[in-house]
Specification:
Elements: H1 2-32, E1 44-49, E2 57-63, E3 66-72, E4 78-82, E5 92-95, E6 100-103, E7 108-110, E8 116-118, E9 127-133, E10 136-141
Antiparallel strand pairs: 1-10, 2-3, 3-4, 4-9, 5-6, 6-7, 7-8, 9-10
Protein backbone atom coordinates (compact mmCIF):
# COMPACT_ATOMS: atom_id res chain seq x y z
CA UNK A 1 0.00 0.00 0.00
CA UNK A 2 2.75 2.44 1.00
CA UNK A 3 4.72 1.48 -2.06
CA UNK A 4 1.93 2.39 -4.49
CA UNK A 5 1.41 5.73 -2.75
CA UNK A 6 5.17 6.42 -3.06
CA UNK A 7 5.11 5.53 -6.77
CA UNK A 8 2.08 7.75 -7.26
CA UNK A 9 3.75 10.71 -5.52
CA UNK A 10 6.99 10.19 -7.48
CA UNK A 11 5.08 10.11 -10.77
CA UNK A 12 3.09 13.20 -9.78
CA UNK A 13 6.21 15.17 -8.77
CA UNK A 14 8.16 13.96 -11.82
CA UNK A 15 5.36 14.98 -14.20
CA UNK A 16 5.05 18.37 -12.54
CA UNK A 17 8.79 18.90 -12.76
CA UNK A 18 8.86 18.03 -16.48
CA UNK A 19 5.89 20.34 -17.10
CA UNK A 20 7.54 23.20 -15.21
CA UNK A 21 10.83 22.68 -17.09
CA UNK A 22 9.02 22.70 -20.45
CA UNK A 23 7.09 25.86 -19.53
CA UNK A 24 10.39 27.62 -18.71
CA UNK A 25 12.53 26.37 -21.60
CA UNK A 26 10.00 26.72 -24.44
CA UNK A 27 9.72 30.54 -24.20
CA UNK A 28 13.50 30.84 -23.87
CA UNK A 29 14.13 28.81 -27.03
CA UNK A 30 11.31 30.61 -28.83
CA UNK A 31 12.90 33.95 -27.97
CA UNK A 32 16.36 32.86 -29.13
CA UNK A 33 15.15 31.60 -32.51
CA UNK A 34 14.65 34.61 -34.81
CA UNK A 35 11.37 34.72 -36.69
CA UNK A 36 11.44 34.16 -40.42
CA UNK A 37 10.52 37.36 -42.18
CA UNK A 38 9.52 37.27 -45.82
CA UNK A 39 11.66 39.56 -47.95
CA UNK A 40 9.86 41.94 -50.25
CA UNK A 41 10.92 41.75 -53.86
CA UNK A 42 12.06 45.15 -55.02
CA UNK A 43 12.85 45.73 -58.66
CA UNK A 44 13.13 49.53 -58.70
CA UNK A 45 13.12 52.45 -56.29
CA UNK A 46 12.46 56.12 -56.88
CA UNK A 47 15.03 58.43 -55.28
CA UNK A 48 13.48 61.79 -56.15
CA UNK A 49 14.21 64.72 -58.42
CA UNK A 50 17.57 64.25 -60.13
CA UNK A 51 18.48 67.96 -59.95
CA UNK A 52 18.32 67.75 -56.13
CA UNK A 53 21.32 65.40 -56.16
CA UNK A 54 24.49 67.56 -56.28
CA UNK A 55 27.41 66.56 -58.49
CA UNK A 56 30.39 64.98 -56.72
CA UNK A 57 28.29 63.57 -53.88
CA UNK A 58 26.87 60.24 -52.85
CA UNK A 59 24.10 58.81 -50.77
CA UNK A 60 23.27 55.38 -49.43
CA UNK A 61 19.69 54.36 -50.21
CA UNK A 62 17.80 51.23 -49.22
CA UNK A 63 16.92 48.89 -52.06
CA UNK A 64 14.68 46.50 -50.17
CA UNK A 65 16.98 45.20 -47.46
CA UNK A 66 20.13 45.93 -49.48
CA UNK A 67 21.99 49.24 -49.10
CA UNK A 68 22.91 50.84 -52.43
CA UNK A 69 25.56 53.53 -52.87
CA UNK A 70 24.21 56.13 -55.30
CA UNK A 71 26.87 58.46 -56.72
CA UNK A 72 26.61 61.51 -58.92
CA UNK A 73 29.92 62.13 -60.62
CA UNK A 74 31.27 65.59 -61.40
CA UNK A 75 30.29 64.97 -65.02
CA UNK A 76 26.65 64.60 -63.92
CA UNK A 77 26.55 60.87 -64.63
CA UNK A 78 24.88 58.68 -62.00
CA UNK A 79 26.32 55.40 -60.75
CA UNK A 80 24.88 52.91 -58.25
CA UNK A 81 26.57 49.96 -56.57
CA UNK A 82 25.72 47.59 -53.78
CA UNK A 83 27.07 49.37 -50.70
CA UNK A 84 28.53 46.33 -48.98
CA UNK A 85 32.15 45.32 -49.49
CA UNK A 86 32.65 41.96 -51.17
CA UNK A 87 35.24 41.05 -48.53
CA UNK A 88 33.32 41.05 -45.23
CA UNK A 89 30.13 43.03 -46.01
CA UNK A 90 31.23 46.30 -44.43
CA UNK A 91 29.55 49.42 -45.76
CA UNK A 92 31.55 51.19 -48.45
CA UNK A 93 31.65 54.93 -49.07
CA UNK A 94 32.37 57.27 -51.95
CA UNK A 95 35.45 59.47 -51.54
CA UNK A 96 34.90 62.48 -53.75
CA UNK A 97 38.46 63.79 -53.25
CA UNK A 98 40.09 60.54 -54.46
CA UNK A 99 37.31 59.58 -56.90
CA UNK A 100 36.99 56.05 -55.62
CA UNK A 101 34.85 53.84 -53.41
CA UNK A 102 36.46 52.89 -50.12
CA UNK A 103 35.81 50.20 -47.53
CA UNK A 104 37.05 51.49 -44.19
CA UNK A 105 37.12 48.06 -42.51
CA UNK A 106 40.18 46.69 -44.32
CA UNK A 107 41.12 49.56 -46.66
CA UNK A 108 39.58 47.98 -49.74
CA UNK A 109 39.37 50.30 -52.73
CA UNK A 110 37.12 50.11 -55.78
CA UNK A 111 37.17 52.34 -58.84
CA UNK A 112 34.08 54.15 -60.11
CA UNK A 113 33.16 51.16 -62.28
CA UNK A 114 32.91 49.06 -59.11
CA UNK A 115 36.06 47.06 -59.88
CA UNK A 116 38.24 46.09 -56.92
CA UNK A 117 41.53 47.96 -57.27
CA UNK A 118 43.41 47.18 -54.06
CA UNK A 119 42.96 45.64 -50.66
CA UNK A 120 41.33 42.37 -49.75
CA UNK A 121 37.99 42.56 -51.70
CA UNK A 122 37.88 39.43 -53.88
CA UNK A 123 35.43 40.65 -56.53
CA UNK A 124 33.79 43.82 -57.91
CA UNK A 125 30.75 45.50 -56.43
CA UNK A 126 27.36 44.62 -57.90
CA UNK A 127 26.15 47.42 -60.12
CA UNK A 128 22.64 48.86 -60.34
CA UNK A 129 21.07 50.74 -63.22
CA UNK A 130 20.22 54.41 -62.72
CA UNK A 131 17.63 56.02 -64.98
CA UNK A 132 16.31 59.55 -65.10
CA UNK A 133 12.70 59.60 -66.28
CA UNK A 134 10.97 62.98 -66.54
CA UNK A 135 13.52 64.43 -64.12
CA UNK A 136 12.93 61.69 -61.53
CA UNK A 137 15.80 59.41 -60.51
CA UNK A 138 15.15 55.65 -60.46
CA UNK A 139 17.52 52.89 -59.31
CA UNK A 140 16.91 49.37 -60.60
CA UNK A 141 18.70 46.06 -60.62
CA UNK A 142 21.07 45.87 -63.55
CA UNK A 143 20.28 43.38 -66.28
CA UNK A 144 22.47 40.29 -66.05
Amino acid sequence: MAETRRKFLNALIGTGLVGWLASVLYPVFSFLKPPELPEATVSSIKWGVATDFPAGTSEIVKFGRTPVLLIRLDSGEFKAFEATCTHLDCTVQFRSDKKDIWCACHNGIYDLRGLNVSGPPPRPLSQYAVNVVDGELFVAKAEA
